[in-house]
Amino acid sequence: MTRSSSENTLEPEEQEPRLKEVPPRNGGHDGENERNDSHQNNNSQGGQDEEKNSPQFPPLPVGLLDSSLKAVRREVVLKWASTVLILFSFILCILSLYWAVLFHVEENMSALTVAVVSFDGRISPYEGTSPIVGPVVERLAQEQAMIQTGVLGYRVHDADMYNGDPLAVRQAVYDYKVWAAVIVNANASALLQEAVATGNTSYSPLGAGQIIINSARDETSYYNYIIPQLYQFQTDVTTLFGERWIQTVLSNTSLDTATYARVPQALNPAIAFSMFDLRPFYPPQATPAVTIGLIYLIIIAFFSFSFFLPVYTKFLIPKDHPPLHFWQLIIFRLFATTAAYMLMSLAYSLVSLAFQIPFSNDYRHNDTNMAQNPDGYGKGTFVVYWMLNWVGMYALGLASENVTMIIGQPWTAFWLIFWVITNVSTAFYAIPLSPAFFEFGYAWPLYHIVNGSRTILFDTHSRIGLNFGVLFAWCAVNTLLFPFCCVYMRWKTNKEMARRVPRRTIKYLVDG
């Protein structure tokens, strides 16, 4: 009966019949004994040395500079030098990516666009008012825009672009069309002039304008670059306008000094801006869920291969059972890996739930109002979050499994570092601030896991369809490559076994 190829994986060679040993004749023994007696004393010391170096005894240690180690020393030095050269080159090439992602931040700062829109005197019933606040803000924004590096990309937009509606400007910030907006309210000049003329003590400088941000979009960019510069912009506007405004008031003889003395805030600072964060980044423990915690999603998916491979290979080792067909093992591995990713991603998601990241806030809110901890999908937010982590882990993990089966040890460590750095550098930092080289990150899995997580947890502008679509594309491509990588790994393993076990014939067929 013909055995399958898995049963024939290791097959001993046919052995030739052994010849029957013929005992020597007595005469031979006598001659040999005479020779042994004559040389017994001379070979006593040599016999001890031969006994020490015989196969039954390991060689005795020698010094590093011993002549017998000359060839070994040369081999060790060459391998050490080549290994250091490889590691040296890898550090320069791959680790440099993490530094390089922030190398052009100053030059690319203008990519963080800020819309400056003045409605001052442009909306009824304030259309007849002569604007004095709006022109100052627009002029300063134009001056800032002329600076080449290190300044946000201020863009002065006409109010007609937004149909005279300040809420449309907020919508642009929410929809990721701009990173922030500076709005001069329609009544900014009218209320200020009325305050000094009538002594309106209820006047608030903060009613002159608005600064709109959306920090949950990318808290790192907002806290490091955008918000500090917006505060500086507000200070510069207040200083520039305040100097001119006080001179205007003091030189206007029609104004009563006692009247405007009752509203000192109308003289200094005169105007200010209220800041509105449409989607605040909160609570703080949400940080790992959209940044550093996702690194562990990559690492867990990577090392799961080493844990599960010995389990799967038990089907191929015929111990008290026939081996499994290899093609069936591939299918089993694929389904088992998918199930493992599902459970591991659930555990990862439960960590965020355990530390009370909100997953069930379903109160009503809209895009243009400030919302505290608004979940993207109400009561179903956690399930969507789990599904995103599951698909993301599959996309990240199966790619690692395929590469691991192709390159093998010890090169898998290089792959893990490369995979982590390229994903982290493009997902945790704003790609518009990076050199153009890093635009490949728009197609990398972690970028879409991060952005999808922000939509789910903070109800930011939704591109969840695109996020899942890219992740599913990664899953599909790696699933198609998975069988070929399995076949290659088995071929490579059998080839290695043939080299290490030369007295056996190793037969390999995929349909084992």
UniProtKB/TrEMBL annotation:
Keywords: Membrane, Transmembrane, Transmembrane helix. The keyword Transmembrane applies. One of its GO terms (cellular component) is membrane. Residues 1-59 are annotated as: Disordered. The keyword Transmembrane helix applies. Residues 84-480 form the DUF3533 domain. The chain crosses the membrane at residues 77-101, 289-309, 330-357, 377-399, 411-431, 471-491. This is DUF3533 domain-containing protein. Residues 15-38 have a biased composition (Basic and acidic residues). It comes from the Eukaryota. The lineage of its organism: Eukaryota, Fungi, Dikarya, Ascomycota, Pezizomycotina. It comes from Capronia coronata CBS 617.96. PANTHER family: NITROSOGUANIDINE RESISTANCE PROTEIN SNG1.
